[in-house]
């Protein structure tokens, strides 16, 4: 046993090849160009509008996320007010950085220039890993932070430099203020390290000190959640129901590989096999096992299929190392066949990414034919209709009698609607409220308002709360998201039947 451990350490301590700067930089540059073009198209995405609204209401926590994204959105909007391209630049920069870090992971696993370029290309042609960076969302940031953490851990395996674990802990503390998924990563890494080694990882004082730091920095958000009944945990139940609409557990792994892409998917599978069976990757086997554990956990608990995507880079990197090693050893004919297959997959994957990029002018984008189609292409349709919605609500507000306008408030049915009005119409509208998601925690409407201008909602529910309910407008944009900018009725409501202290907790929903 001692001999095996010594040989494993000897393998890890072998000097690594240099970083393939030119090919990796080329891939990263091409990816940045695609991302910048995608980020400049159409308009604000619904969640981006929500982050901007949340950023104007700073807090230690929110119902469905931590404070990092709202603060980042507020910063970018302050630097360039109204620019959705500038708003998205942090996501673009982080995603490009993840491509480079994926190549650096390949180098840690002993991969040379060809393997590093292949891994970078795999990451850059993944429709999910790349194109999520064209929007400022929690996934875009959380995924990249996982990639960085996994690289720090892999480098620690080779160097045993505990400072890397401290840096990983700091990044973890930041990430947990983005999304509450990173603890799953560390639990999977710890369990896998105990099963496969290096078992010393879970005993390092630096790791536990870093963990204590991460928990300490999370205390304000935990207190916020505790005082409000842990809404972020309640969100997981809702997400589990949503995942059932996408095929549930049966389709979890196939859809995970489909999200990875035509090149990254095969590399990912090759990487998992290489972790389990290739001797040079034995010291890093726990990373592949951690990926498998995370897939099982999120599949069983009803998590979304992309929750473990931040660990895909590890498997892609290992797959690139394995493929290039096979190319170096196989006879010429088979080497050419494998090379042609890899190139073909790469071209196919790149073409798929380009096809998924929003190239069409807005007037040539076709409306969704169904709610399901809109949900599948949510990153496209979720960008349309917001200016029209804001204009319609402003017009309805201005048409109210002058006596009513002075004491009017707006109540939006969805948090996307409320956020769009807050971003695009707040200088022309009265105070805005919504019972949806995080907006419900921003506060309830006043009981003494002269009129409540409702944006959307069900008439029966409204009549249960108000004595007078009358339609005063309609929003139905050609492009947009159903229920948010399409098929939306504007209602003039007066004389509440119940106080908002009584009704708002009933109206609030996640």
If you had to describe this structure to a student in words, what would you say it looks like?
Mean pLDDT is 88; it is low at 1-11. The chain contains 24 helices and 5 strands. It starts with a helix and ends with a helix. It has helices at residues 2-12, 21-39, 46-55, 68-79, 84-108, 113-124, 127-131, 138-159, 163-175, 182-196, 205-227, 231-244, 252-260, 264-277, 285-301, 312-329, 332-356, 371-376, 378-381, 386-398, 402-405, 415-424, 459-465, 500-507, and strands at 408-412, 432-433, 451-455, 466-475, 488-496. Helix content is 62%, strand content 6%. The chain is an alpha/beta fold. The chain has a 5-stranded mixed beta sheet.
